Amino acid sequence: MKTFFVIRNGWNSVNQPSAFAKRNPKNQFESKQFELVAIVEATSDEEACSQFTGSVYSNQSLFATSNARSAKGLTKAIESFEHNCEV
């Protein structure tokens, strides 16, 4: 088992609005194009995505990665996500 970071890609006014997004080509999470939605233990990226139970609309997609540096801004998003889970 590995730790996977599940990321939702794409804006939607219901679950991932683009309002107040900061355009930043070095951090796709600030632009709200990407949102870290789960951190899970899984054997593959497909299994990690299947563990996510939140909403994904037709203009959105999910992907998972085990490499925290594979998406611009992911490391910072992980720190924020973990902090929000502790509160």
Describe the structure.
The protein is an alpha+beta fold. It has one domain. 23% of the residues lie in helices and 25% in strands. It contains two helices and three strands, in the order E-E-H-E-H. Strands 2-1-3 form a three-stranded antiparallel β-sheet. The protein is globular and about 35 Å long. 18% of the residues are buried.
Task: Give me a quick take on this structure.
With 87 residues, the protein is α+β, with helices and mostly antiparallel strands.
Layout of helices and strands, plus pairs?
Layout: E1 2-9, E2 34-42, H1 45-51, E3 61-65, H2 74-86
Helical content stands at: 10-25%
The largest β sheet comes out as:
3 strands, antiparallel
- The tally of domains stands at 1
Distance between the first and last residues' Cα? 27 Å
Number of separate strands: 3
General form:
globular
Write down the overall mean pLDDT: 91
Widest β-sheet, arrangement of strands: 2-1-3
CA gyration radius, whole angstroms: 12 Å
Strand content: 25-35%
Order of helices and strands: EEHEH
Number of helices: 2
Low-confidence segments: none
Global structural class = alpha+beta
